[in-house]
Amino acid sequence: MKQIYNIIIIGITAFGLHSCSDSFFDRFPSDSMQIETYLTDDTEVENVLYDVYYRLRSVTQNIIYLNDIGTDVAYNRKANNSMDHINLNESNITETFGISSTVWSGCYNIINRSNYVLESLEKVIDEDKRKQFAGEAKFFRAYAYFQLARLFGSIPISTEVIHDYTTLYGYPRMSIDDIYDQIVQDLTDAIANLPDHYSVGLNRGRATRIAALTMLGNVYMTRNDFESAKTHLKHVIDFANANPGILGLEDDVEDIYDSTNANGKEIILAAQFNYGSTIISNYLMSASIPNIINPSTQDTYIYEDGTPCTIKSSEGVSILLMTYDLFKKYDQTKDKRFKKLIYNGVYDAEFTSDAPFEYRTATNATYIPITLKYYDHQNNYNGLTRYAAGTDNIVYRYADVILMYAECLNETGDLSAAATYLNLVRNRAGLDNIETSSNEAMSLAIENERLLELCFEGHRWFDLLRTGRLSQIMINHFNWEEPGLNSVIHSHMNGNDKIDSKVTWKWTNASYPILFPIPYDQLQLMIDFGWKQNDGY
Q1: What is the pLDDT of residue 30?
Q2: How many CB atoms lie within 10 A of CB 80?
Q3: Distance CA 437, CA 531 (A)
Q4: Minimum mean pLDDT among 123-137, 203-217, 279-293: which range?
Q5: Of 269, 295, 328, 434, which residue is the least packed, with the fewest Cβ within 10 Å?
Q6: Region of poorest pLDDT, from 101-105, 430-434, 519-523
Q7: Which candidate, 233, 142, 134, 156, places its Cα nearest to that of 184?
Q8: Would the pTM count as exceeding 0.70?
């Protein structure tokens, strides 16, 4: 669906850029496009749907930040003074925290646009398109509510377009059960309306029945209904087994993230970007590269085929760097994910001379490992002077399904079958089979494999929140003191060798579930209508 973005840009110009927000739903201002004169035929309804796909890029980027910078996966290098990312890294969140606020507004943009599509279906003449648009709109409405429920807990629900913005202020925060009932209903309807896959053309990369089954399985797991989750995920696995050329594990882990292999057979759904574009290239490439001030501006390593790869630190912004904690968890001898998807380079840095001795290398440089999941190698092959990545933000892929299914099998008592599916992912990575003697040990093995396989893809916070292990993992992470660069914990975070006790206190005393704060501006608008802030803020 890469070529679809030429159409999307038109839709954004005509539709998205003219919207504003008084509260949690966007509305159309009276001095710009009148919605009554739009959404009159198949093409115009589809343009609104394209806008949903376009907005998925921003939402997924920030979901990745929250899940990975907010846990033991990634960190923001404090020298860049990016306060939202620093505060997320240090678990120092307030009501004015910008990243979660952006997810809030982005998700409600998706919800309201999905509602516009659903309200306008009678204008769609083509019956097949009408069915497809209904399925996609309900899929993305469910996606948005699923992110919001996991991040904020109780939230307002609307399944209708907001025509009169004055009615916004009467919307209550609904119960978690009501929210998940709506999500399940929307995904059930999406499953009934969408095809299993699209093989060619502009539709390639759009939401499918397989994507809806995958998300519904994830929803049931979040609700601790592992039997229902297992049933829906098994449908996805059965489809893959029957159609190995359409859905399955890539043989080479690099191929998952290759911009020339967009929507490859492992991808179930992704927010998509265009290589070489200044408008819709993926910012996460620069985010995951450190910006090193002194003295070097770039570093080079060699691909397996002998081609040199130059990583330009002048293009990096140091927002999404790999923690040394995560780096040390890989089997550096066998794991292909380590060999192909991590650049374990050594960089000089401006704080080298002040770093404690044990955090320096023999060459007096600072060690900074980097994920290459968003590094578009086409920049090197084509000699671009600036990074413009066409790598995508993956929402779901088949390895995720296998590991979720393994977890469901383990939770429902089938330890042997859980090991079989877990080992599919391990073996692809070049690792030996794992054998465990208990469900508890298998649960930890699956958790660890999800970390190694899905890091930097926006899953870690949600996984640990689901299993109730978020606090324990983060306490361990914040108190980890193995020598080496662990930039979350040591001198780069607080100017001393150990973490600030104020930060540790939050995790030591946190209760499950852990929620982000309702955005300050939304709370102020709704406080007279009974809205209260989430606990802890």
Answers
A1: 37
A2: 15
A3: 48
A4: 279-293
A5: 295
A6: 519-523
A7: 142
A8: yes
